[in-house]
Amino acid sequence: MIKMAEMRAEGGPLRKCAVDLQEMAVKPFTMVIFGGAGDLTMRKLMPGLIHLFEDGELAAGFSVLSFGLPEMDDGSYRDNILGALKQFDLTPSGENWKAFSENLHYLPSSFDDDAGYEKLCRRIEEISVRDESGRTNLIFYMAVPADVMPMIVTKLKLYNLCKGPHNSRIVVEKPFGQDLKSAVELNRILTGAFDECQIFRIDHYLSKEPVRNILFFRFSNFIFEQIWNRNYVDNIQITVAEEIGIEYRAWFYERTGVVRDMVQNHVLQLLGLIAMEPPVGFSADYVRDEKTKVFNAVRIFEDGDIDRHCVRGQYGPGMIREAKAAGYRQEKDVDQASLQNTFFAASFYVDNMRWAGVPFFVRTGKRLARRITEICIEFKQLPLRLFGHPAQGDIEPNILIFTIQPDEKISLRFGVKYPYSVDEIFPVNMVFGYRDDFKMPARPDYEGLLLDCIKGDLSLFVRQDQVEAMWSIVDPVIARWERVPPKDFPNYSAGSWGPREAQTLIEEAGRRWLTT
Ligand code: BG6
What we know:
Blueprint: H1 2-7, E1 29-34, H2 39-54, E2 62-68, H3 74-87, H4 94-101, E3 104-108, H5 114-127, E4 137-142, H6 149-158, E5 167-173, H7 180-191, E6 199-202, H8 209-219, H9 222-226, E7 233-241, H10 250-253, H11 257-275, H12 284-297, H13 306-309, E8 310-313, E9 315-316, E10 318-320, E11 323-325, E12 343-349, E13 359-365, E14 372-379, E15 389-390, E16 399-405, E17 409-417, E18 424-433, H14 434-438, H15 447-455, H16 464-483, E19 492-493, H17 500-507
Parallel strand pairs: 1-2, 1-4, 2-3, 4-5, 5-6, 7-13, 9-19, 15-18
Antiparallel strand pairs: 7-14, 8-12, 10-11, 12-13, 14-16, 16-17, 17-18
Helix pairs in contact: 2-15, 7-16, 11-12, 11-16, 12-16
This protein binds 6-O-phosphono-beta-D-glucopyranose.
């Protein structure tokens, strides 16, 4: 452990990014998307931007300039975007599309071509609307594979686009490295060109509206905050279950696996929001400080404890929604003897005063029984049983459930008297749902974080010390599993809830998975 701590970013405390939330407004901006013709732009960024536009959030003025290959002109680029929006059933009205698409531009260039960056500087001058202070607000969005990013950052620095005359931000997608060491190195490159306050490391789970709601729910309701600790909470469960397999991404998944892909980031970020202390205020570093403290308090497993606390799995063939699903090793471009993990479960512990002794059971995997992301807070049982017996099964404790997807709701489970009975208790739910209560769906993924970035609000972007603390948690697990190969892969069928050991893990602790 000491070794890992030593590897962390040098330079003492991270520079604080003090921004007053009230002063944040959408100013005119130019977003330069590296890899702007790629999948992420088509699936997530453009739908997010057009929705913000339709909501009137971009009224101050904006331009999008996509940088990359293949060769095309503005007109063809706009046609491609419209085609993609239609494919995802997001066709804007003719009028909206016309007004929006006038702001889309394309600059064909490879990422290492100096001539391309010279043109980029000129195009930025031509298309950018300056803000009231006369500055250009630039957002560089890295929608590119991680290995290309260092080169782009170096070029941006060379062409004085990082600090210089502009107000620049850079948005970086995960993975933030492959382990602690490479994350530190990646950060060295980024901070060689940008300040920490300019770096927006995006975890798209933090863009999901029900995830963003966790802090509001926790810190604006008196009744829950009182019982949010080891005195009242028996255990916490986080399930991030996917029905899909690896789709067309074998090249990525074969060298990544579930721990790097899902646990180091999305799962731990959810844990951080549930476990963190109230921040002093809601500006970025207050929030980020508290989350970092949680990651630093998560117990790091000794090599000998990993098998007891963690379960790994890989899916074999099975059935999902009555259709046959191939096993991982049968997926296109996957090694037929691959030992890559597609499932992870663990009992984590947050060793601080609030959570000492409370297990955090987490699990995530591909090709599971259904797509659901849920966080369950299971409260302790009453010390005394006053009423006779439950109408069915055991008496259930109170459970608070954040359902993040595909439904978006918060439910509280409690017992009531079963009608006409004398002393039978029956569990029921009190539910808040986005669609029922607000008559609207939650905001789509990415949109919230895009807007935060445009405004300059870093609260829900991942700070480097979090990145490093999260790697410190998972690195020993990855290292052990790479050293000691699994003997039983594939060990769960597509369409199941994962390997049997994931049940045993929680049952041996005297609990059961609440998400089914
Ligand atoms: C991504 C992972 O970060 O999250 C994918 O790389 C995964 O493997 C995806 O499928 C899940 O996101 P969501 O929003 O569909 O739950």
